[in-house]
Every structure is written in C-alpha cells, then in structure tokens.
Automatic annotation (TrEMBL):
Stored PANTHER family: PROLYCOPENE ISOMERASE, CHLOROPLASTIC, PTHR46313
Domain of life: Bacteria
Domain Amine oxidase: 12-486
Species in which this protein is naturally found: Planococcus antarcticus DSM 14505
SUPFAM superfamilies according to UniProt: FAD/NAD(P)-binding domain
Protein name as annotated: Oxidoreductase
Length: 492
C-alpha cells in the first residue's frame, strides 16, 4: 500500500511537518479549520490595519536556528537582521534593557545592582555556559522522551563528553541555582527573570526546569528579530513550499472525527468530506483529542498525553490597538514587557509589541499597530458575569500601566479590540482559549514531556504541548520530530 500523509492543522508545527514531508516527495494533504495559516502565529485585518494574532517576536532565525534550518532546506531563507536592542523590561523599580550582546546585557543588569555585581556575573556566566552546551543538542535535535529503539540510539549518538557537565543540573530548578549564587532573595532581579520566563516557559523561576530556563534566558542573545508584517510570514513560506512540492492545502476544513479503519486513518471534516491516509499528524490542541477520537482510541493514547489533555495551562486576554504617531512624543518600541510588580498574570505583567514605523504591511504611514497580552487563569472566566468583568478589569489594568509610562497613549488610540478566551477558541481553535503550552516545570519537561508519538499506530502529534514545548521554535521542533518519524529520515 502506498503511504500517504494527512496533516490536521496549519499551525507552525503542522506546516513544518507537512512542508518537510512534501519537500521529501511524500503525498501530503493539509487541512486547516481557519481561513488563515499559522494558528496562534497567524494574522487578521481590520480596515487598514493588520494585527498578529499572538506570537510577534521572531526567534530561531539565526544561522543554524530551527526556523533558519527549515526555511533554508525548503529553499526559502529569510534575510532579516537581528535586533541589537531586543526589548525593554519595565518594572516598578527600574527599566532593564535586553541587549543582544551578552557582555553589554550583563553590564546593564549589574549597573542596577552594583552590590551584587559579582554574584550576578557568576550567575550569567553559568547560564551562558549551560545554554551553549544544551544548544549543541539542537543540531541533531533528538526527540524526548525516546519512545523507540531508533530514538534511543539517535539520542545516544547525539551525546558528547561535554553533555555530561549537564547532569548535576538535570533535576534542578532555576530557584536552586539562584540560591547557589546568593541571588534568591534579590527580589527585583528575580522578578525581572520571572517576566522573561513566564512569556517563554509559562512559569517563573521558582518552578522552571533549570536547563530549559538557561536556554530561555540566553536564546535572545543568539538572535531575536522583528519580522516585517509579522510571524504569519513563516506560515506563508511553508504553505507555499508545500503546494510547490505537490502538497494539497485546504482551508476552512474543520476536523469532526478521526477513525481507524484497517491499516488506514479516515478523517471526516465538517462538510462531510472524508480523507484517507496511512499516516496522520495532528497539529491541534491536545484538549480536542477526546472530541475527534472514539473513547476506545483515547484510552490507548500514551499516559503522558492523556494526562496533558486533563491538565490546565494559561489562557489570555490580548488587546489589539492602532495608534496615531502624531499624538505620541516618540514611536513605540517594537517589543516591551511591562510589569506592575504585583504578579505574573491577570494584567500584572504583560507583553507589548508594536509595528515598526514604515512597516506598511501592518499599518499605513503615521500609524503603528500594537498587540498586548497577559496571562490569565481559566477559572477567572468561567461564568458570563466573571467573563465580562475580567475582560474590563484586565483591559483597564494594562492601559493604566501603559498610561503611567506614556501619558499621551490613550489619546493616540484610533482602534482597539480585545481577544478574550472565547475569541481564541473561535479564531484559533483553542478550547477555552488555552494557549502557550504547558509550564516547563521539572515534572513536565525533558524526559517528562509529551512525546510526538501518540501511542496509536502512525498517528503523531505536534504543537505547543508537545516536546520541546511552546513558542514557534518549540512547535516547529515538534513538527520536525513528527516528519522524521513518518519519513524515517533526519530531513533537517
């Protein structure tokens, strides 16, 4: 029987897997429920303004980075320059600047804490050294947790003597390393780290797995990018490649059920169309699996995947604004974190990204589009009354924080709308608006991650809940693992 591949979901993970397999000559059909590609990294338009739906900061585009490897393999490299000044981190006590240059960055941080300069420099030296070793595993990119003899062999062959230096840190949290360096009680420094970690690791310094935290804190130095238009361009490049290599991409096709019939998988969309394939890659939120698979199939999923389905992650409130530059004293910076110092969720900390003046893919001359998002807990939205109150409260909380920093901000707003959890459910298919993937704690990361192998024959999963985790880099890596398992080749 000739093998065929069906990919469900055109998020970054599904598009990565589908485009790589199509490039390798596989017959690939990709179904997407939305009219847009990219999932949480897609876009939408309002009149003359274009807004990134979610992800905005480009990562993994540096030479050898995950996206760079994929795009070059597909023959679609992106020629853009990294940001030297990555972002501002505005906290009540100080404004920190994240610089691409490691030495300049550490100098800037220690300037805020001169009495702790020695400890901070020692801490960052360890972070940078640890991250450099971990990154050497991103070239072979072994799958975790290994589920087959081939994956175990590949992991073993990827290990080098330098990797044994990581063993003492394997079951440690960042909190433990901060204590080792005498920085655990330096509240302002720790809160600054927490702001970086909640956006990338979905948890703070107390619980985050140290090895992953080291990479997360260091990766901006490898290269962070402003992508003109937005990260939806990643999806467009991969979608174009898939079609150019003979793949079929169908939008507005919502998967209703997935059944096993003999040696084939049969998927049925909301229009009643049936699609047969020997291999299926699901790039859908794992919470949807019980809705599309029969109970007897759900019971055969890997335990870690079933546990993940039942687990809870963050939801979000996102604001989409357009501002008139003539009413601002200066243009908004591309990327800025703002923290009120209260907590890491419910508007106490949020990420604000703005289009660069002159990026007319997003806004006409004289205007900027702005995306603002904060973490929130699902239980804060579980009734209609709470839902409307929470949306109002969080919106005002974030606008007030910006107003304190930029007094003329509200006057400059010419368009504003919000994306609350139900909007994320409708637009991106995220049940209850759960986004961002699982918190990278010791009990959910590395060998405790959810494998791309579902536990069912020839059925693979990818996306922000699957190893290695959230963000476009994590989603793409999970798509690479799924494509490798289908093809039996390394591919990239």
């Amino acid at each position: 029987m000739a093998r065929t591949v069906l990919v469900i979901g055109a998020g970054i993970g599904g598009l990565t897997a589908g485009s790589l397999l199509a490039k390798d000559g596989w017959p690939v059909t990709l179904l997407e429920a939305s009219s847009e590609l990219g999932g949480c990294a897609s876009k939408f338009k309002r009149n003359k303004y274009l807004f990134p739906a979610g992800a905005t900061l480009g990562m993994g585009l540096e030479p050898g980075g995950i996206h760079d490897r994929v795009f070059r393999h597909l023959g679609k490299p992106m020629a853009i320059e990294p940001l030297e000044r990555v972002m501002e981190m505005v906290h009540p006590e100080a404004t920190f600047v994240f610089h691409k240059d490691r030495a300049r960055h550490v100098d800037g941080i220690t300037a805020h804490f001169p009495q702790h300069s020695k400890q901070i420099r020692s801490f960052y030296k360890e972070i940078h050294q640890t991250a450099a070793i971990v990154r050497t595993l991103m070239d072979p990119l072994p799958a975790l947790p290994p589920a087959t003899a081939k994956e175990w062999t590949f992991l073993t062959k990827s290990i080098r003597p330098k990797h044994f230096k990581l063993l003492p840190f394997f079951n440690q949290t960042l909190d433990q390393r901060l204590k080792k360096h005498g920085l655990d009680t330096l509240k302002e420094f720790r809160h600054m780290l927490d702001g970086l970690l909640i956006d990338s690791m979905q948890t703070g310094s107390e619980d985050v797995a140290y090895l992953l935290a080291a990479v997360a804190l260091d990766i901006y130095h490898e290269g962070a990018y402003y992508v003109p238009g937005g990260l939806y361009r990643f999806s467009e490049l991969m979608g174009d490649s898939l079609r150019e290599n003979g793949g079929v991409l169908k939008k507005r096709r919502t998967l209703e059920k997935l059944e096993r019939q003999g040696e084939l998988w049969v998927a049925t969309d909301h229009r009643g169309n049936a699609y047969e394939a020997t291999d299926v890659i699901l790039n859908v939120p794992i919470q949807q699996l019980p809705k599309i698979l029969a109970p007897e199939l759900v019971s055969k999923l890997k335990v870690s995947l079933r546990d993940g389905i039942a687990g809870e992650t963050w939801t979000t409130l996102t604001l989409y604004l357009a501002v008139d530059l003539t009413k601002l004293k200066e243009p908004l910076p591309p990327f800025r974190q703002i923290s009120t110092g209260v907590n890491l969720a419910e508007g106490g900390h949020f990420f604000m990204s703005s289009s660069v003046p002159g990026d007319e893919l997003r806004a006409p001359e004289g205007f900027q589009t702005v995306t603002i998002s904060t973490h929130s807990r699902l239980q804060e939205w579980d009734s209609q009354e709470k839902y409307e109150k929470q949306r109002t409260v969080l919106t005002e909380c974030m606008l007030q924080a910006i107003q304190r920093l930029i007094p003329e901000f509200r006057e400059a707003i010419v368009h504003m709308e919000s994306g609350a959890p139900k909007a994320w459910e409708r637009f991106a298919g995220r049940p209850n608006g759960l986004v961002g993937g699982f918190p990278q704690t010791l009990d959910a990361a590395l060998f405790n991650s959810i494998s791309h192998r579902s536990g069912l024959p020839n059925l693979y999963v990818c996306g922000d809940h699957i190893f290695p985790g959230g963000g476009t880099i994590g989603a793409a890596a999970s798509g690479i693992h799924a494509a490798r398992s289908v093809s039996g080749k390394k591919l990239v």
